[in-house]
Amino acid sequence: MDTLSYLAPLFHVDVLWTIAMGTLGGLVIGALPGLTATMGVALLIPLTFSMTPVMGLNMLIGIYIGGIYGGCVSSILLRTPGTPASAATVLDGYPLAQKGQAGKALGMATIASTIGGLIAAVVLATLAPQLASVALEFGAPEYFALALFGLTIIASLSGDILKGAISGLLGILISCVGADPISGVMRYTFGINGFASGFAFTPALIGLFALSEVFTQLERLTVKDDNIIAHVSGRWPTLQEMKESTSALIRGSIIGTFIGIVPGTGSGTASWISYNEARRTSKTPEKFGTGYIPGVAATESANNAVCAAALIPLLALGVPGDVVTAVLMGGLMIQGLAPGPMLFQTNPDVVVGIFGGTFIATIFMFIFGMALIPLFSKILKVPRRMLTISIVIFCFIGSFSINLNQVDLLTMVGFGVLGWGMQKYGFSQAALCIALILGPMMESNLRRGLLQTGDNVIEFVSGPITLLFIGLTILSLAWPFISQARLKSKRTANPTE
Amino acid sequence: MKKSLLTLSVAVAAVMAAGTVSAADFPARPIQVVVPYSAGGSTDLSLRVFADTFEKNFEGKQMVIRNQPGGGGGIGTSAVAHGRPDGYTIGAAAQGPIAIKPHIGGTDYGVEDFNYVGLFARSLQLLVACKDAPFNDYDSFIEYAKANKPQVGNSGAGGANQISAEAFAEAAGIKIESIPFEGSSKARTACIGGHIHAMVASPAEAKAAADSGQMVPIFVMEDKRIDLFPDTPTAVEKGVDFTWSSWKGIVAPKTVQGETLEYLRAAVQKIATDPAFIKKMTDMGEFVTYEDAATFEARVKKDSEVSKKVLEDLGMLGMNK
After folding, report:
1. Which 24-63 residues of chain A touch chain B by CB within 8 A?
2. What is the pTM of this model?
C-alpha cells in the first residue's frame, strides 16, 4: 500500500516530537490573548527551513491546531478571547467558570475541539478534491449572501431584539472605519493614519470582552469584598452533559467543516453560526448564555473543525481557506512545493503526510489540553483583585504586540468603555462582535459583486447558492413569527390546552 | 600612472579597513527590519530568509524582523522614514507604500524621504486568464478588450497590482475594469473559480496553476521572455512599451549616513549574492537580483512616476490627502 508507506515517516520519534512540541507551543500561544495562531505559525516558519517537508509542515499544523484550541482557555477563565476564533466561547464558558465549573467547561472545550478536528480531518482525508471544487462556486454574491445569513444570528442571540439590532448596526457602522474596500478612499479616520485599515480586530475584541469585564468587576469590588471561586470542578463532563451536547457537537463539526472549506470565512464566523444553530435547535434555548455546557461544545467543535477543513482548499486547489493557511501556503512554497491540484500527483507523500499529521496533532492537542486543565484552572484561585490587575496588563500587552501600533491601544480602551456601557445597559456585545466580523465581508462583496454585474441587482442575486442563503436568511428571520402563529393556531384548534 | 593607481588601491584598502573597523562596532545590538505587513506574507517571508542569511554571513551579528502592518504598508514604512539615525531601524522596501501610496495620500513621507540601501529581489509579474475567460492568449485578450471591459482582479484598491494592470491598459490602448480584493489570495480564489476574467500573478503562483489548467498565462511584464514560461510572449514583443515588476529591497531613514550606511549597503550586496540565499528565495518563487543603491533608487523613482500618471488618470491622485 502506497498510502501506508507514506504514513510511515510520521511515526519517527523526531517527527512525533516535533508535532507534539508544535501543538503544545500553539496551545500556549493561543491561550495568551494577543498572540494568535497566525503569528505563531509565521514566527516559526524559519525553524522549518532545515526540516523535511512533512516534519516542518506538520509542526506548523500542530501550532495551528493547538493555537485555535488554546484560545478557549482564556475565553473561559478570563473572558478574554485568546484568539478571535474563541470569542463565542466566552458566552457560556465564562459563566460556567463563574459557577465553579471551569474544569468541566475546559474539558468539554477540549473534547469538542478534538471531535470537531477529527471529523474535519476525516473529511479532509476522504473528500478533499471533490469538496474543494464546491468552494470555488463562491463568488462575491455568494459571500455576500452567506454574510447576510450570518448576521441574522444577531436577531436570535440578543434577548431584546431592538437593542440587539442597535448593537449590530453599531458594529457595521464601526466596521466602515478605514479604507473603502473598493475605491480605497479613507472613511471616518479623522486624518489619523493609524486607523487607515480600520479598527484592529483583536484589540477591539480584547477591549470589548476583557477590559469591559474589568470595569464591571471594579464596580463590584468597591461594593463587595473579594470573591475567590473556591471550588473548581473536575475536567470530565458527566454522561448526561455529554448526551445533551451530542447534537451541538456533531452540528458544530459539520458547520465548521463547511465554513472552513469556503475560502476566506474563518473560524470566528463558524463558531458564531454553530452557537446560534445549537441554540436555535435546542429544547432549552433559554439556558444558553447562562453557563450551559452544549454552548461551549458548539463553538469549540466548530472552530477546530475549521482548522482541518481550511487545509482542503489549500491542498486541493492552492487556495488558502483562512489567514493561517495563507501563511502555511508560504511554508509549503519555501519547501519548494506548489500547492494546487498537481500536488496530489507530484508529492503524494507530502499530502498523505499532512493528512496523517492533522490527526496526530489533534490527538496531541487532546492529551495536552486534558493534562493542563488543572494547571490552567489554578488561575481562578488567584484573588480577584490581583487577577484583575494582571488582566489589564495583558489587555495592553496583547493589543500592542499584534501590530506594534499605539493606535491599537486607543482602540482597545475605547472598545473597553463601549463594552462596559453596553453590558451595563443590556446591549449585546456578541451582536456587535458578529457585525464586526461579517460587516466588512458583506460590504466588500456587495460592492464587488455590483461592480462586476454593472449594478444589476437581479443578476447579482440570481445564483443558486445566493438564492439559497437569501432564502435561509428570510426563513431565519421569519421563523419566530411562523412558530408563534403555529402555536396560536394550535391553541385555537385546541382551546382546552 | 602606475604610482597613482597604487596610491588609489592603498587608499581603497585603507577605506575598506576603516570600514571593517566600524563594521565591527556598528551592529553592537540587533538590527531591526520593519516589515510593513503582517507576518507570513511574501515580503515577510523573504525578509525572514534575508535576516537568516545575514546572521549566517556576519557572525555574531543579529537581525530581527518587526512586523508593523496596517494602512496598506503605510504605517510600517512611515516608522522607517522617521526612524533614528543610528541605523538600527531599517525597513523592507515595498512598491505599494513607497512608490504608490504617497500619491494617493494619507502618508507622512514621500519617495524622497529614504536612503536606498539596496534591492535584493524582483517579483516578476504575468497577466493570466482565469477559468472560463473568453480569451486564452495575448491576441485574443486584446481582441476581447476592444469590445468589452475585461474584469481584472487585483490585491487591493490603489495597490501595485491595480497600477500595473491599469498602466498596461493605458499603454496598450484598451479599457479594463479593475476588481479589488482584500489581498492577492482572495483574488486568486476568485480567478480559479472563474469569477473574474484575468489577474496579475507572480510566476511561481501562475506556474502551478497553469500546469493544472487553472490559469492561462497571457503575457509577461518583462522585456524578455522568462525561463519558467518560455512560450509566453512579453508585451514588448507585441509592440506595447510596457514592463513592470514589483521589488524587495532595504531602505533606511534619510538620517542614516556615513559608514553605517555603507555597512548596510555592503551587507545587502553580500546577502543578495549568497548562493544559499538565492536557492531558498528561488524555491519560494522570487527572482533574486542585486541592484546597488543608485540603480535601486532610480527604479523606485521611475515606478513612482508611472504610478502618479496612472493614478491621475484614475482620479485617485491625492484622493486621501
Report:
1. 38-39, 41-43, 45-46, 49
2. 0.81
